[in-house]
Amino acid sequence: MTEVNPIADYAEGKSMLGLELYLLNMTAIEPFDDPMKAYFGEHRAAFDEYLEWLRQIEADGAIFASVVLKDETSRDGSDMVIIRAASYADALEVAEAEPFHRAGLRKNTIQGWVMNEANFQFTLKLMSQEIVVT
Question: In this structure, is residue 82 part of a structural domain?
Fold first, then answer.
């Protein structure tokens, strides 16, 4: 197989981005019928730690995106985070520190995730001090 660099080997604007990130898949071990009820009830301490963990990895610049996973009607407590990390080992360290994983409520797995295409639009409203992402 030939080594082709999608950035260096193609003219500007004619290549894929090839941004290397990591997918942290956080799967609920025992799905919740109502995750928010569980988080504000018996798992409140883990939920509070989770929010602080999210704030910290966002402040550190490790979060590229974070989403709630759900089907057409509900969610079960599973989430996903795209992580910026220098290596698989660094991404795994972030995954292992996630509070619901440490509490035994989620099974966290890491896999490489390469972003080639995307279209994000930002609107900055200075007067109202809003940023809108679409």
Answer: yes
